[in-house]
Amino acid sequence: MTIAKADYIEGLAKGLAVLEAFDTERQRLNATLAAQRTGITRAAARRHLLTLADLGYLETDGSHYWLSPRVLRLAGSYMATSRLPRTLQPTLNRLAQQTQAAFSAVVLDGQECVIVARSAGAAEPVRHLAYGLHLGARLPVHATSTGRVLLASWPKAELGAWLKGRELPRITPFTEVGMARFKALIDQVRQDDFCLAREAHELGIHALAVPLRNMQGQTLAALNVVGTGEQLSDAAVQHKWLPLLLEAARELRPLL
Q1: Radius of gyration of the chain from its Cα atoms, rounded to whole angstroms
Q2: Are 186 and 152 in contact (CB under 8 A)?
Q3: Residues 6+ apart with CB under 8 A from 54
Q4: pLDDT per residue as tens digits for the range 31-69
Q5: Which regions in the chain score pLDDT beneath 50?
Q6: Distance from C-alpha of 180 to C-alpha of 197, rounded to nearest angstrom
Q7: How far apart are CA 226 and CA 230, in angstroms?
Q8: Do the beta carbons of residue 34 and residue 21 sit within 8 Å?
């Protein structure tokens, strides 16, 4: 969406950028760090930090700032009002109960993908869960099965424009970072209509994803199952997990 310059509230955009500057790498920021992470001046960063603290979205010790529980109001409002997570959650719950595995539904948000629905079987060993796989988690598009499925839904020209000049960070030794090979990988995902990612995002973690489309053929999200290499062996993928995910996608299509 493009709006007129006169309608753009720059102060609001900068304030949100400061709020988004907090992440797992930098859980506490001072004005200098916030300025560096957002590209605004230190004085402006300081004012935004003070305002966000006054509004209750940040806590502070007078020098550094960190997120307060109030920011969950924003995420909570999305989860409570968005149709997509509410539509997907019962299916994920059923799959998890049926298989005792972990399932996630993921959407694209800029250069990352975000988990909007998730369910894991009670018997699933905690050690088999990937780090950071929780509701609202932001994951690298290029290194995840769901991200690759979502990229494969784009027209080739749009994907080429997105990749132009972009560097693909190496997260594990198995992360594909070569541009030509990555484009070939996405072409294969587009042809297969599913993606099996082995240890591309975290060592020991394997994931299988399929697209979730509406009746108009638009890919709105991706559905995946996560497990170990043994759980997601090639044979298990073909005979158990892929048919299971594809059937779930077919069931969900009229609802999306």
Answers
A1: 20
A2: yes
A3: none
A4: 999 999 999 999 999 999 999 999 999 999 999 999 999
A5: 125-128
A6: 18
A7: 11
A8: yes
Order across the sheet with 219-227: list the strands.
Answer: 138-140, 112-120, 102-109, 219-227, 206-213, 195-198
Please give the Cα distance from 167 to 52 (Å, whole number): 33
Contact 218, 212 (CB under 8 A): no
Contact 107, 75 (CB under 8 A): no
3-state secondary structure the chain: CCCCHHHCCHHHHHHHHHHHCCCCCCCCECHHHHHHHHCCCHHHHHHHHHHHHHCCCEEECCCCEEECHHHHHHHHHHHHHCHHHHHHHHHHHHHHHHHCCEEEEEEEECCEEEEEEEEECCCCCHHHCCCCCCCCCEEEHHHCHHHHHHHHCCCHHHHHHHHCCCCCCCCCCCCCCCHHHHHHHHHHHHHHCCEEEECCCCCCCEEEEEEEECCCCCEEEEEEEEECCCCCCHHHHHHHHHHHHHHHHHHHHHHC
pTM to 2 decimal places = 0.79
- In a 10 Å sphere around its CB, with 0-12 CB exposed, 13-18 middle and 19+ buried, how is residue 53 labelled? middle
Q: For residues 136 and 253, is the Cβ–Cβ distance under 8 A?
A: no
237 vs 214: CA distance, rounded Å? 24
